[in-house]
Specification:
Number of strands: 20
Subcellular location: Cell membrane
Strand order of the largest sheet: 6-7-8-3-9-10
CATH topology of the largest domain: Rossmann fold
Shape: globular
Organism: Cytobacillus stercorigallinarum
Keywords: ATP-binding, Cell membrane, Membrane, Nucleotide-binding, Translocase, Transport
Helix content: 25-40%
Radius of gyration: 23 Å
Number of domains: 2
Number of helices: 18
Family: Belongs to the ABC transporter superfamily.
GO molecular function, one term: ATP binding
């Protein structure tokens, strides 16, 4: 694999956003090769995404950052290439796919890419249909991009990059928004295309269980943006396991004896109902998204809402939070119609964490963002400062307290969005993919805080694709499929419903998969 000239060479390369700040990347040296599949690991904020933008040539030019050392592409300094050359040859699917789109419809977005490549119009239709077939979006050719689910948008972003026939492809958290089965299909698709087209591939991921077997190489960064490890995956995970974990890096579950948290017992649960939905229907532009849903959630439960991409999970969560209104049906919160609640009173009792954290930022600094809800709730200055300091410490954001929220890494933004909701003990907390893009330590800290709130009586509702999280913490789960509730019960019973799991594109958790593997050996 390494008998050829490296496609990238980094020698003592450093990058910082400001001359007076600590570098995001610190004196890193390594090479990347064509046809090689490399996993890039690191805790949130370790510089992984920054590195990819340097490799793509967007940094430092796009933000006036500062570099030292050498970064070569095909033997030449990356800064010596004419504008646009590197961006066509080095493709990136970003953590937030929406940041890449220029057009409204899927077909137009892909045509826009081909126009920039000067592809004749007579060839465009065939190329667009071919790439949509590759990523499994053929039926969405005429759809508006903003109507797609998060996972579907990510596939459109991938299709756009594949149209450029890149020589090197970088994937930044590529499966984080995908349901479990779509995630496996996505990985298998990428690896098939990589083998056929023989481009180099760099994958940034926290959940690497399904990527590990395909990777030739493992590069890990520590919290200071330095090279922690450069080895084969097997050698790294076997011989450097504790070093990786001490640097807050998630490792494949098969290398660790994973402790499973014990979900709160549903036998002693509160019989009072906190949320009651009756015959809820929701449409968007004449398309039915939710179909006559009826269910209730009892106080004190830890409930997961799961299902395939586009099943209506986020839409349902937004209706419960009164961020959207149903076309028909009714929602009661604490035995009062949701429509009767005044917003100021409702938001003292319900906290909501968006799927895209940037949608809830309204202040200029991380500190002010965390303090905002406390000030609205009438907390004293002393109490506000004490709680803000504790939350920033718990979510590893204390050193970033005076930064602009929009300047944070994807993982840091997610942590901040969660922290802003945890200053009080509301009756109901709603989370849309809260663990997406987070390192092992942050998830552990976050779940500790959430479980403490749950033990104090707060009802927790997660929209998630993480079946291990559901298995470890939840005592109630709703499965959605095509806008319908197809299962309403305990996780334990759900794992027995093999046919249902298959239809809903879910997987049993790793704990049970490993037990099944042991029984078949």
């Amino acid at each position: 694999m390494k008998n050829h000239q490296p496609i990238f060479e980094l020698d003592s390369f450093s990058f910082s956003f400001d001359k007076h700040d600590e570098p995001s990347l610190n004196n890193v040296s390594f090479s990347l090769y064509a046809e090689e599949v490399t996993l890039l690991l690191g805790a949130s904020g370790s510089g992984k995404s920054t590195l990819t933008l340097c490799l793509n040539g967007l940094y430092p030019e796009a933000i006036d950052g500062f570099t030292s050392g050498d970064l070569l592409y095909k033997g030449r300094s990356i800064s010596s290439y004419p504008k646009g050359v590197i961006n066509q040859e080095i493709g990136i699917v970003f953590q937030d796919p929406e940041s890449q789109f220029c057009m409204v419809r899927v077909e137009d977005e892909l045509a826009f890419v081909l126009e920039n490549l000067s592809i004749p119009r007579s060839q465009m239709k065939q190329r667009i249909e071919h790439v949509l077939d590759i990523v499994g979006l053929s039926q969405y050719k005429k759809h508006n991009i903003h109507q797609l689910s998060g996972g579907q948008k990510q596939k459109v972003a991938l299709a756009s990059i594949l149209l450029m026939d890149p020589q090197y492809l970088i994937l930044d958290e590529p499966t984080a928004n995908l349901d479990p089965i779509s995630s496996i299909e996505f990985i298998e698709t990428i690896m098939r295309i990589q083998k056929e087209r023989r481009f180099g591939l760099l994958v940034i991921e926290h959940e690497i269980d399904d990527w590990e077997t395909y990777a030739h190489r493992l590069i890990a960064l520590n919290k200071k943006g330095e090279i922690l490890l450069d080895s084969t995956p097997k050698e790294g995970f076997i011989n450097h396991l504790q070093e990786l974990r001490s640097n807050r890096i998630r490792v494949p579950k098969r290398y660790v004896n994973r402790e499973i948290a014990r979900p709160p017992s549903s036998e002693k649960e509160n019989k009072e109902v906190i949320v009651n939905l009756k015959n809820i229907q929701f449409n968007y532009k004449n398309k039915q998204i939710l179909n006559e849903l009826s269910f209730l959630i009892k106080k004190g439960r830890f409930c997961a809402i799961v299902g395939e991409n586009g099943a209506g999970k986020s839409t349902l969560l937004q209706l419960i939070a009164k961020l959207n209104k149903p076309v028909s049906g009714s929602i009661d919160f604490l035995n009062i119609p949701l429509s009767d609640w005044h917003e100021n009173e409702l938001y003292k009792k319900i906290g909501y964490v968006f799927q895209n954290p940037e949608h809830q930022f309204i202040n200029q600094t991380v500190y002010d963002e965390v303090c905002f809800g406390m000030k609205l709730s009438g907390y004293s200055r002393v109490e506000t400062e004490r709680m803000a300091h504790q939350l920033l410490t718990d979510f590893d954001l204390l050193s970033d307290k005076w930064k602009n929220p929009f300047s944070l890494s994807g993982g840091q933004k997610r942590r901040l969005s969660v922290a802003t909701m945890l200053h009080s003990t509301p009756d109901l907390l709603l989370f849309d993919e809260p663990t997406f893009g987070q390192d092992a330590y942050t998830i552990s800290q976050f779940m500790r805080i959430v479980m403490q709130l749950n033990e104090k009586g707060t009802t927790i509702v997660f929209v998630t694709h993480d079946m291990d999280l559901v298995d470890s913490y939840c005592n109630h789960v709703l499965v959605m499929q095509e806008g319908n509730i197809v299962y309403n019960g305990t996780p334990k019973e759900l794992w027995r419903r093999t046919e249902l799991l298959e239809r809903a594109r879910l997987r049993i958790p790793y704990r049970l998969r490993s037990m099944n593997e042991e029984m078949t050996v």
